[in-house]
Amino acid sequence: MGAKPSRRHRNSLVLHRLAGLVEGELRELLVEVINLLKRLEPHVTMSRYPIRRGLDLLPPERFYGEEDAREALDLAGRVVELCERGMSLASSGT
After folding, report:
1. Potential cystine with 37: which of 12, 31, 60, 78 (Cβ 3.0-4.6 Å)?
2. What is the pTM assigned to this prediction?
3. Looking at the domain assignment, is residue 2 inside a domain?
4. In which domain, by residue range, is 30 found?
5. Into how many domains does the chain fold?
6. How far apart are alpha carbons 76 and 89 in whole angstroms?
7. How is the chain classified by DSSP, letter by letter?
8. From CA 13, how far away is CA 59, in angstroms rounded?
9. Per-residue pLDDT for 7 more than 70?
10. Which is nearest to 3 in space by CA: 12, 11, 14, 13?
11. Is 59 inside any structural domain?
């Protein structure tokens, strides 16, 4: 569709560029996916790499808890559901 993949783990920006190319229910789904990705994207790097606090490096397990993980998994699950629904809509041509 013409958009280049994100090099900065910001897939919401790529999808935002594509949103103008679709209409109707598919566009609504895409906007919802974009909003969910904006909430998830900060965790892409924060959950994998240490954070510097002064002279200390804090590993992700020091600032992420079980509730954070569950929330991120719920959001990611919703993204998958919306993508599956969007693919179904796109393949049916509606």
Report:
1. 12
2. 0.75
3. no
4. 11-92
5. 1
6. 20
7. --PPPPSSS-HHHHHHHHHTT--HHHHHHHHHHHHHHHHHHHHHHHTTS-EEETTEEE-GGGT--HHHHHHHHHHHHHHHHHHHHHHHHHHHT-
8. 28
9. no
10. 14
11. yes
